[in-house]
Write a structure and sequence with these properties.
The protein has 265 residues and is an alpha/beta fold. The protein is built from eight helices and 13 strands. The strands form two sheets. Strands 1, 5, 6, 7, 8, 9, 10, 11, 12 and 13 form a ten-stranded mixed sheet that branches. A three-stranded antiparallel sheet has the order 2-3-4. Helix 1 runs parallel beside helix 2, helix 2 crosses helix 8 and helix 6 runs parallel beside helix 8. The protein starts with 5 loop residues before the first helix and ends in a 6-residue tail after the last helix.
């Protein structure tokens, strides 16, 4: 008997169960989205079309918009602050990787449930003997974070490194005791660079916050119908395990792209 891929089955079920009114109600028939452009496996620039963003978050929104009969464009607009500015202005309808804070609440309607947790975890050398039950066990140890990461904690001794690869190499040279970095981003980047087997992730996470879809207040597409449909579809897809499956698929997608030689401009 031919087996049906669980993700394809979940997406097909979502399309078949979409209410008939979904194709007739709402103020727009096209949604433009953006987000941070350098955050694999959630979002990154398409090597084949750098004006476009691809990744797990883009794929998830595509499943939702397809089920609602909406066209979707996921565009590169710059770094996180630039992406937020474009959504705040209403030129872009939806932010794919919004985290809750007061500033964003003033300009965005957040969709619940969230897409996925963003977990800052401690990575250490792959060797026995590191006793860890929580963030307090990192006090007094030498930590590294990637320059530009927003994590700050006065109780930890943290230095910055230019990128995750250099931070990890410093860790392996015993120039640091741990590296703090988002869980899935570290798996994507270290896996693509052949460093993932050299380190191990400590549990529980040092911090955790939720990532949401968020609709701009000034978007022409922002109406109660669309916000309600986004919430319904997110609930259904999370129950079917689709966001986690898309993360796994895009980790492999990113790793495969990193193994290919760069194209000559």
């Amino acid at each position: 008997m031919r087996r049906v891929h669980p993700l394809k089955f979940a997406c097909l079920a979502l399309l078949l169960t979409a209410p008939l009114t979904a194709f007739a109600v709402g103020k727009c028939d096209r949604v433009i989205a953006t987000g941070a452009a350098d955050n694999p496996p959630f979002l990154w620039r398409d090597p084949e079309n750098p004006k476009r963003l691809i990744g797990a978050s883009a794929d998830l929104l595509k499943v939702i918009t397809d089920s609602l009969g909406l066209k979707l464009e996921v565009l590169y607009t710059g770094g996180p602050s630039k992406a937020l500015d474009e959504v705040r202005s209403g030129r872009v309808d939806l932010l794919l990787d919004a985290t809750l804070d007061v500033e964003k609440l003033a300009v965005l309607d957040f969709v619940h449930p969230p897409v996925a947790p963003l977990q800052t975890v401690a990575w250490v050398r792959h060797e026995p003997g590191f006793l860890y039950a929580g963030r307090d066990d990192l006090a007094g140890l030498r930590g590294l974070v990637v320059k530009g990461d927003s994590f700050t904690d006065a109780g930890l001794q943290l230095r910055s490194a230019p990128d995750l690869a250099q931070a990890t190499r410093s860790l392996l040279k015993q120039e640091a005791d741990y590296v703090l970095h988002e869980r899935y981003s570290a798996v994507a980047r270290l896996g693509g660079q052949g460093l993932l087997d050299e380190v191990q992730r400590l549990e529980p996470p040092v911090t955790s916050r939720e990532m949401h879809l968020a609709v701009a207040h000034d978007s022409a597409c922002n109406d109660p119908w669309l916000r309600g449909q986004l919430a319904i579809k997110m609930t259904e897809l999370r129950a079917a395990g689709v966001p986690r499956q898309l993360l796994s698929e895009n980790l492999l997608r990113w790793r495969d792209q990193q193994s290919k030689p760069a194209k000559t401009p």
